[in-house]
Amino acid sequence: MTLTSESYRDEFILPDNKSVCAIKVEPEKQGESHLVHASSRLQPTPDSTCVYLCGNSLGACPKKSQVLIQEELNVWSKLAVEGHFHHPHGRPWTEVLDGVHPLMAEIVGAKPEEVCVMGTLTANLHLMMLQFYKPTSERYKILCEARAFPSDQYAFASQVQNHGFDPKDAIIEIGPREGEFWVREEDILDTIEKEGSKIALVLFGGLSYYTGQWFPMKSVTKTAKAKGCICGWDLAHAVGNVPLSLHEWDVDFAVWCTYKYLNSGPGGIAGFFIHEKWNGMETPKYAGWWGQSVDTRFQMGPKFTPIPGAQGFQQSNPAVLTVASLLGSLQTFKRAGMMGPLRKRSKMLTGKLESLFHQSKFFVPPEKASMRSDPGFTIITPPDPESRGAQLSLLFLPQGTGVMDKVFAGLKEWGVIGDDRKPDVIRLAPTPLYNTEEDVEAAAKYLDVVLASL
Ligand SMILES: *Cc1c(COP(=O)(O)O)cnc(C)c1O
Where is the Aminotransferase class V domain positioned along the sequence (predicted)? Predict the structure, then answer.
């Protein structure tokens, strides 16, 4: 069996070049590549699929999701309100999440009662902070990574302000040291050791959206807990990308979206985790009818008796079309053997992409990045496979000179889709479910072609 056949690419619909890229027709004439023997299959045509390396931003569409969404549309059309209780495919809408929670729990390393599929990421982040961020005059700070995703920054700042604190004082950000690109584990742990008694909440992104660094979740959680802090994680870029053991690591809570590596479609329904040790100690502060115990929910009585665990925090009845979409993707994950085999393949693909980049004459090691005067690039994602997931973040050089914009446009002309983070970064994420070694080879080859043409 070739490695390519281990891909579940056939279970996805990938965009084609004529829909999203203006393809140049004669790539071989445009410049020399270090990959002189690269297969002619790499040559894009208008009808071929894109080299889609953007699953870290919006995962590709699973065929199974299309089927399940169509089924729900059919049930809605034929049965309307009856679909809540009688469903020809065994997913009555009142119970539609029962088939989703166990799969979701497996992905994040939790018990099904510890996870809840609901709402959207930023809203759930606020909800979890309203529940778990309980600042006092001594212990009120939030420790997070520098350059957190903007939504998280705004959420943290608005939460501390709502409690009457000044974000400048109450939010501690840890970034890379001068001249470095990723954060050292010891710097995070030392800060927790030193400032821990003032920190109410340690709340990092599990995996940095910007650099692709996978933070040492286990040691950060352990150190934070030892200092009496609550430890939460935003797993937007970690879920479906790296193996997680939220229960075992003793994480207090976590939130995530599902449209990145989990391929649930734009704006898809999100998820969160609350460790079971909080059962009974934390009851929903912002209750809704869907958190009500299933036996009594439809009695419509005045007394709120929540479902034990994370699902008691549900507020509204779930958006079934986006649940169907997520379920289609999770079933595809399940067929692929879940995170074990996928992580193995992910390491292979990302490792291969990295080693091809290292062979490029335009590659500069990170410590020499500031010395480069000709167009080139470095990689600002940690080289240790245990400190990253699928994504490599490329920093284009010299910084601030517009090289990145030209490269980004150029790559698209060769059918390579990544995403740009202004002013100088392009993120490329070979995802193990649907990307192949050919995708990785094409990305490396055309990056060289484009840089040679500048
Ligand atoms: C993608 C992402 C978001 C997006 O938030 P939404 O509420 O889903 O729009 C927020 N935070 C992080 C860390 C992300 O990576």
Answer: 66-278
